[in-house]
Amino acid sequence: MNKPLDPKKDPARHVLKADAWPAADQQAWRDACSAGDLLDGTGLAAGWAAQTRAAVVKAYGRWLGWLARQGLLDPAIGPSDRVGQSVVARYIADLQVSVAPNTVVMYLSYLAMALRAMVPSADHRWIREATGRLKAQATPVRHKRHLLVASEDLFRYGRELMIEADSSADLSDYRRATNFRDGLIIALWATRPIRRGNFASIEIDRHLVRNGAGYRLQFEPTEPKTYGPIDFAIPAALSPFFDRYLLHYRPMLNVNTGHWAGARVLVPAGAHLWVSNYGSAMSAGAIYDRVTKLTKAKFGQPINPHLFRDCAATSIAIQDPGHVRITTSVLGHTSLRTSERYYNHASSLIAMERHQANVLALRRGGRPSVSAESRHTSRPEE
């Protein structure tokens, strides 16, 4: 049996870096990101969050990489002139072979955003309309229900990791520092599941702010993906752990710059909250790897950062359904549609649990349990 190809080495997933784009495309993107002035005007991408720009650049680079492999990347023509319906249809077909349906939607959506910003005078509404149709048809490759873990269990696990690291006499100082950091990451993410890019970018005194005996997380409106400010208190239960990390363990990691020196290009830690095993700023990818590895060891399956958000929303919907709409604030969504989806998901989980309890009761010869609310709602109308 042939070993599956590493996605990172798959030529079908090759992304053309921005500095390798044709000159016309590079200039169009610079103009789109330009702040401009009263005479020149402001580019449509100038106000986008950094992570949105990065996602659009990656998606557009994938489009150009695909064109290059097809022999269709003519540097003499502009971005809009390459976008024909038949060519885009072929691009979509190739994407559908290599990535999940929702990922196809994402790449096409970002391609439309790039073209609208780079060539605002052109009409590419048909791409957005095609994206809408694909989104309506897209079904998740993997269902998340069996992957979800209650947020309180994730928080408890993070706390356990910190307490164990702080009290263990068998670990080196270096290992205690990395384990404590990982536990704090998991515990904080369980209670404040902001997006991975923002989480990795947290800086001390800029985003993490001391507030009396506790701490707050604050982001400017231009930093989150949804262009809204983030400002909320970190749970008081985590304050002593933050004190311990900032005063004791983070300095230990911060001076560890000689560890595996020269292994890779590193970003100085500076004011970044999360310091890597190398004494550098911890990247979003490194945080992802640590969290998924640890949660897989604990819960039997990896809980990635995005699943932390699903876990939080579902936990709210199950434990406090009357206030399910707070998920829009917890997750930073701009629409209630996602909150309602989690509510429906939580309702189905509760229904399955009731069904299972009734089946077990019947097997034991007992009588199925039906709540007063269920009896009322299931009673036929008179």
What does this structure look like?
- The chain has 382 residues and is mostly helical.
- The chain has 2 domains: 131 residues, no CATH class; 158 residues, Intergrase catalytic core (hpI Integrase, Chain A, Orthogonal Bundle).
- It is built from 14 helices and 3 strands.
- A 3-stranded antiparallel sheet has the order 1-2-3, with no helix packed on it.
- Strand 1 and strand 2 form a beta hairpin.
Largest beta-sheet characterization: 3 strands, antiparallel
Q: Given this structure, which CATH class of the largest domain is correct? A: Mainly Alpha
Number of domains: 2
Order of helices and strands: HHHHHHHHEEEHHHHHH
Helix content: 40-55%
The stretches of 5 or more residues where confidence is low (pLDDT under 50) are 320-330, 342-359, 367-382
> If you compute it from the alpha carbons, what radius of gyration comes out, rounded to the nearest whole angstrom?
25 Å
- Distinct helical segment count: 14
Assigned CATH superfamily of the largest domain? Intergrase catalytic core
Named CATH architecture of the largest domain = Orthogonal Bundle
CATH topology of the largest domain: hpI Integrase, Chain A
Strand order of the largest sheet: 1-2-3
Mean pLDDT: 79
By secondary-structure content and strand pairing, the structural class works out as mainly alpha
The beta-strand count equals 3
Estimate the strand proportion. Answer: under 5%
State the shape: elongated
Distance between the termini: 65 Å
Key terms:
3 strands; 382 residues; 2 domains; mainly alpha; hpI Integrase, Chain A; 3-stranded antiparallel beta sheet; 4% strand; 14 helices
